Amino acid sequence: MPNYRIEFHKRINEIPASEWNALVSDNNPFIRYEFLDALEEHRCVSPEFGWLPHHMSVRQNGNLVAAMPLYEKHNSYGEFVFDHSWADAWQRIGLPYYPKLVTSIPYSPVTGPRLLVSENHRKEPLQSLLVEQVQQYCLSHGFSGWHCLFANQNEQAWLSTQTDFYTRHDCHFHWFNRDYITFDDFLDKLTAKKRKNIRQERKSIDQSGIHIRVLDGHTASDDDWKRFNYFYHKTFTEKWSTPTLNEGFFKSVAKSLPDQTVLVMADNPDGVCIAGALMYRSDTILYGRHWGCIEEVKNLHFEACYYQGIEYAIRHKLERFEPGAGGEHKIARGFIPVETQSSHWVSPNPFPEGLAQFIVEERNAIEDYIEECSEHSPYRE
Has this prediction a pTM greater than 0.90? Predict the structure, then answer.
């Protein structure tokens, strides 16, 4: 067996950025060193919010050959795979559910690579090593289990074959680029009713006199980020939620990943910026993340968060647009239901039959929901 050196890290900066990023596929922004480091540097992940880094690295002959983001969690906030009923069940019989370990992107229900393996090595042996080591780490440090959330399709398919893992299912709504050249090409694929509705929504923004600015990390100013940060915090506090990101984080990612940052800002006819939407992109996918406003304008949310994103994806020939979790209203705007999955390992497992039944019932409910949503497809075919 090859001689590997396994380490767990309390800070991502204990691993050289160039080595970590060399393992990242599709230039996925959320898994890149710069994004994860900004979360830590600006204390978006910290004991205050219940996210403590424990990133894993695997070296062979001094070279980084595998790694994965890993966090100790003392709550379930910011995961978007809801396990409060599991935590309650553990508590009822006197077992601690927290702390647990999670491989995820904090506060980001986005699909992407989670088990990072060098292209010069076979994937499965190193993926197996990552899983075995995190399981041992759980057992030796008193964690209730390990949860891998929103892994990409290939990694999730492999995780689903592993012994003693539970696969949970959910539904997101994604937009797919069918080699469109223009936004009108996309509209032509929709039913007449949906096409008319989108045109009316966009026309209402044009007639309102609102000016849309699509910026990146190069062109967004400090004032733009200050305003967007205010929008973001206002949205979360109004929803009685916890804003964990901050202006320093937004600016840091924009500076280090300028070409992967997409900031949509909306100015009213008086030149006052009243709303903003933040997105990030990989080489093939656009990801919608956050939205906020100080003035409610009908259809502005759809324009900034969806239609501008679709136009961007078409213009840059991206394959897919993931606008974020939830939202049946996305269907009428060209997004279709997509099943997402996550993998879960717990030890000890006090409820093997109960969890198995939970998984079956949840999957059946998600399949029914996707089928129902698909009946309302906005596309002609």
Answer: yes
